[in-house]
Amino acid sequence: MQKSRILFKYWLPPLVWMCLIFSASADAKSYQHSSALFEPLLRWLFPHMAQAQVEFFHHLFRKTAHLTEYSLLALLLWRAIRQPQKTDRGSQPWRWDQAGLSLAMVFFYAATDEFHQIFVPTRTPLVSDVIIDTTGGAIGLLLLWGIGKILKHW
Fold first, then answer.
1. What's the CA dihedral at 72, 17, 64, 102 to 10 degrees?
2. Nearest Cα residue to 142 out of 28, 129, 150
3. What is the pTM of this model?
4. Over the chain (154 residues), what is each successive 10-residue block's mean pLDDT?
5. Which whole-number Å values give the CA distances from 127 to 71, 120, 130, 151, in the listed order?
6. 102 and 137 in contact (C-beta within 8 Å)?
7. How far apart are the C-alpha atoms of 35 and 29, rounded to whole Å?
């Protein structure tokens, strides 16, 4: 009973998030779908913006989404690895090996996600996306560490 409880409480959230990432990367028209929402909003806010600028901001928006989704994945994996208990109440010290394992898992998943895109029409696997995704994971973990340091001193 305890092992299944740990599985559902700690490992199910990152697994569900990974499935969501996988399904999004399987979308053959991902660029068109995001541009159908983002570009009209940008044109409404800035009606005189040149098309090249609209495309630049759309690209920046998509890469920021990569950073964000993998940042959240790193945090969910860190939580699953750490498995904090109710009795800890912040007393469990930060462990860089746990953060490192979480980041390694993010890197591996990002790489397999890009490999998966080889088989999706209109998608292009990019090493730069793996770097962006892993950077997002690192940013998420560093923010968590920094917030923990700040809260510890309050």
1. 40
2. 150
3. 0.84
4. 83 96 78 74 90 89 91 97 71 88 98 92 89 97 94 82
5. 18, 16, 5, 36
6. yes
7. 10
Q: What size, in residues, is the chain?
A: 154
- The DSSP result for the chain, as a single string, is -HHHHHIIIIIHHHHHHHHHHHHHHT-TTHHHHHHHHHHHHHHHH-TT--HHHHHHHHHHHHHHHHHHHHHHHHHHHHHHHH---TTTTT-SPP-HHHHHHHHHHHHHHHHHHHHHGGGSTT----HHHHHHHHHHHHHHHHHHHHHHHHHHT-
